[in-house]
Amino acid sequence: xxxxxxxxxxxxxxxxxxxxxxxxxxxxxxxxxxxxxxxxxxxxxxxxxxxxxxxxxxxxxxxxxxxxxxxxxxxxxxxxxxxxxxxxxxxxxxxxxxxxxxxxxxxxxxxxxxxxxxxxxxxxxxxxxxxxxxxxxxxxxxxxxxxxxxxxxxxxxxxxxxxxxxxxxxxxxxxxxxxxxxxxxxxxxxxxxxxxxxxxxxxxxxxxxxxxxxxxxxxxxxxxxxxxxxxxxxxxxxxxxxxxxxxxxxxxxxxxxxxxxxxxxxxxxxxxxxxxxxxxxxxxxxxxxxxxxxxxxxxxxxxxxxxxxxxxxxxxxxxxxxxxxxxxxxxxxxxxxxxxxxxxxxxxxxxxxxxxxxx
Length: 359
Description:
- By secondary structure, the protein is mainly beta.
- Helix content is about 5%, strand content about 45%.
- It contains 4 helices and 19 strands.
- A hairpin with a 4-residue loop joins strand 7 and strand 8.
- The protein is extended and about 85 Å long.
């Protein structure tokens, strides 16, 4: 890659402090002749069908999307002791596979009654095939062969109920009752960075879907849209303690001397405790959710009535947006928010009403 800087006009001199400066065009970096474009190869197979006299429509696709020559810096080729870093090269390989579908039924049962029902969804999962991963990491920590943007976490297996529980299991230095227990993954009797494991999930869902339904009966009409997602996780990281409150879900049933819980930890001050400052699965929550995205109900007065007043259409409606959300494991924040710290502005619930008048 080549980076250049223009000083002044490329054709005319310019004056600085009363003196004429010469124009300069110079190279700031050495170009890498081995850098080229990424390569993408995609294969799709699908079908479309209509049945029941064109009342039922089905669409489905399967895709295999592979990218190679991804620009990545080598990690295994240079010993860390040298402190050197090689320039990025086109060495990365990632594959992405999945499917999507849509099924729609449209029924007109009479001049006064009709309905439409539809369901759609899509699943996708990627995998790193090669990126010259640094050697030495345990197999359960390596990212090659796993999805992109995944993280390493200590596995939380409970809470130290009392001092005897602390002594009975390998623990972080300074651990005490009420602390989260980190699993000794490699069973060496020591809790350290080698006990972190890779979780094959990120904040991007692997499956998203929707369900829509519309109904018309005489002058009444109803339209609904549900959306859902599964396969993603988010990390809860609140600034609780000196500068922030605790979540109610955390405070209820927490460990105290009078309530020595073995499932919920004690209070903490920001990141002072090892189990608050080191990523672990206790605070890693599934963001699986179903949301009533849109609901609209309307009523149109009969044409025979409104036309007496020179009106073609008079319709009343009320609609709601983001009315309800169900997420069994992620109740404190918006499951679609990017961060689990309460600092992302949540989606708004909106209710509106209207009148449509056509002459």
